[in-house]
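New to this. Help decode both lines:
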Amino acid sequence: MLSIRTDVASLNAQMNLNNTQDSLNNTIDQLSSGYRINNPGDDAAGLAISNNLTKQIADYNQATSNANDGLSVIQTAEAGLSDASNILTRLSELAMQSSSDGVGNSERQYIQTEASALTAELQRVSQVTQYDGTSLLNGVTTTLNFQVGIGATSNDSISFATLDATVSTLFGTGASTINGQVTIDLTTSSAATAALATIQSALAQLNTENATLGAAGDRFQDTISDISAMSTALSAANSRILDVNVAQATSNLSQEQVLAQSGISVLATANQLPQLALKLLS
């Protein structure tokens, strides 16, 4: 029906063109941002899920950092124990040398001087082995907790206690005080022979502590691997929800551009229809 007052064809063409323009604008937003969901209206449920996944991913990434911190603490303590082990190895060599009658008493005094210096260094290592101000080998027990999960249960943290690698603990009753310093006595053959057992016991203690650290370090490494795998899986899931499918969006863009051009042409034609009614009047 020809009408002058209401151009129904033009109204329909405008409505379709507006819908096409909205779709075109949405596709352009997706391609320019890289996201399928740019506002809650695009997919409210998907956006809520994505927000939760984003939080979990951020928490897992921080958990990875925490676990790496724990591993760094372990490695710092292991370095201190390695120094202590090297010192004890040298002390064992000196004790072996002093226990033999191939050296005289004067030479044993030289050996004792070195042994005392090494013992002082052993004690110093136990005091200065620290991580971020926390002493790791000085015998003051501190329990260190590292949050490696996204929850608040005991399964979401790893704990271990600092160790004791002080001279008094390592040498125990085998220690002697010479010139005011706690050390081992290598001044006589019999004392040096007894010191060998003391040093062997000290090395056994270090081996036990190294095993403790090694187990904790392995646990941190396994945790880091597990967390990384979970974070990667969640990132992939979030990408499938949030990220735009570029191939599909590009195809939609081409289609919507054609529809927009077609809609403009049709609207121009529809706007000319009332002119036909005027021709009837003439």
Q: What stands out?
A: The radius of gyration is 39 Å. The chain has a mean pLDDT of 89. The first helix runs from residue 8 to 33.
